[in-house]
Amino acid sequence: MNIYVLLKRTFDTEEKITISGGKINEDGAEFIINPYDEYAVEEAIQVRDANGGEVTVISVGTEEAEKQLRTALAMGADKAVLINTEDDVENGDQFTTAKILAEYLKDKEVDLILGGNVAIDGGSGQVGPRVAELLNIPYVTTITKLEIDGTTVTVTRDVEGDSEIIETSLPLLVTAQQGLNEPRYPSLPGIMKAKKKPLAELELDDLNLEEDDVEAKTKTIEIYLPPKKEAGKVLSGDLNDQVKELVHLLHTEAKVV
Amino acid sequence: MTRKVLVLGETRDGSLRNVSFEAIAAGKTVAEGGEVVGVLIGQNVSALSAELVQYGADRVVVVEDEKLNQYTSDGFAQALLAVLEKESPEGLVLGHTSLGKDLSPRIAAKLSSGLISDATAVDVAGGNVVFTRPIYSSKAFEKKIVTDGLIFATVRPNNIAPLAKDESRAGEVASLSVEIKDLRAIIKEVVRKASEGVDLSEAKVVISGGRGVKSADGFEPLKELAKVLGGAVGASRGACDADYCDYSLQIGQTGKVVTPDLYIACGISGAIQHLAGMSNSKVIVAINKDPEANIFKVADYGIVGDLFEVVPLLTEEFKKLKVHS
Ligand SMILES: Cc1cc2nc3c(=O)[nH]c(=O)nc-3n(C[C@H](O)[C@H](O)[C@H](O)COP(=O)(O)OP(=O)(O)OC[C@H]3O[C@@H](n4cnc5c(N)ncnc54)[C@H](O)[C@@H]3O)c2cc1C
Ligand SMILES: Cc1cc2nc3c(=O)[nH]c(=O)nc-3n(C[C@H](O)[C@H](O)[C@H](O)COP(=O)(O)OP(=O)(O)OC[C@H]3O[C@@H](n4cnc5c(N)ncnc54)[C@H](O)[C@@H]3O)c2cc1C
Hints:
heterodimer, A: alpha/beta, 6 helices, B: alpha/beta, Rossmann fold, 7-stranded parallel sheet, globular
């Protein structure tokens, strides 16, 4: 099977976030594989191990995404592709990313594409379904289970807590939700092997794309931190009095009950 | 500049979801005085048209087909694209719900348009329609505009106030027949786990339990409190993982995003992934026995103590308040 994983290098949002020069400050920040894409990598490896084939991880970004791609290779993916946009595109959005990914994938005879359901930094959840539409293949989002039998695929989809059991077929794109699997940690031999696995680097030119073809349709005009919350009121005194005070405050000060 | 804006009305158990009324209000802002057209897709949904109009739609287009009795991306995309083709609007707004998240990127890709997902506010400023949305797991916000083509957005439930319902409003309802073919993914079964009653993502009050509730029974006092306040019960992943409650209650990055007027966190430590689902609530109360717990950093009010003592006392006190007011 030809299995592809869409992998985004993201800012670790457990980190403290600061803004400088109107941008999120990335100096010294930790970057990780988007957690939902880790589920996608793990599932791809399991599908390959059960059905044969090859897992290719792809990322659109800068050279720095090499590190996250190497981690995916160390987990067990076979090949990696970095589409480096650094020199070509200044302002991109989800339209940009999806277009580039689809352009790369369109002649690859894909059987299965896996991605995360959302990136924890950008948070739109657009890229997966956009890519599927551009490739004209079916997709299922926020999946928690994937079973493949020949070309028939049965997927469990999380819908705001309810589950849908969906039947569909390959070729297919799915996006991972928490609960799909437990991603493995790269093993030491895995890390050694990953160093020798192929990691190809492409630019827009290699995909016959011009900057104009991928020009963003939206633009960020401002980034800001939420207003600093005043330190909350931690009540004190006798517990009964605290509870009375809380109810009083919610009623008269916060006016929410 | 006035615009024609389409707004998709979303149904659940045969009624319209609140987020649809909020999306109409957002649509009105985008329209800048132009027409807001409600769209209903499903089987036997036309009766809901009147309510869309009462909440501000000027008219409604309905696409009905038995193949649309459940949401599928293929079916709904065909129906919505047909309406878009007929109406050629300049704006389109959906709720940022499971349905909206699944459908909107596909429509955007088909139309080669931009899409601003998960907006919590929309304003007109400096000649632009400006959307505000949370980024970095709600730790920051961005303001975004569409620079080319359709103004297309999804709105997060419970953030944009709906317009007041006006029962005297009337508007034309037209049905559009669309041939729905080729559903490539078919729903075989739906396993309902989400609780009946108050819809968690739209509730005005949410009482949430974490690993600190210690057992499934431990949720009982929380349910009591929710009942008194007319709210819904939620949970942290800690509580779901420990099997104290169903995953359908999970709030956070991987669960539901809620923004109620009042969020009461009981026995929840306040991990970033949990905060991503509730930190924009209007008022947050934390009840935790550990004074150092992270949840106190985002709480407006906190009580350091045992939730099994505090929650029943709170329930009693709120009951008294309800009697007096
Ligand atoms: C050339 C370029 C320039 C950009 N310029 C800007 C800018 O100026 N300002 C700005 O705010 N943002 C910029 N971005 C970032 C961009 O807007 C989004 O972050 C990105 O398209 C993904 O959107 P998202 O974060 O909402 O991811 P989502 O749509 O939420 O991601 C869902 C899933 O899609 C897949 N996916 C997402 N992104 C990628 C990727 N890059 N590679 C592989 N798979 C992916 C992953 O599987 C992920 O889990 C730029 C991106 C590119 C490619
Ligand atoms: C990719 C990913 C996605 C995730 N998504 C989510 C998500 O969507 N939602 C989510 O919630 N988590 C999510 N998590 C998990 C998150 O990191 C935390 O592990 C989880 O939120 C912890 O749950 P908790 O606060 O209930 O448990 P704990 O962290 O164990 O906290 C329990 C708290 O209860 C207090 N306590 C104990 N007994 C009492 C008592 N009697 N009275 C009062 N207080 C008491 C303790 O002091 C403690 O603070 C995710 C993690 C990952 C890696």
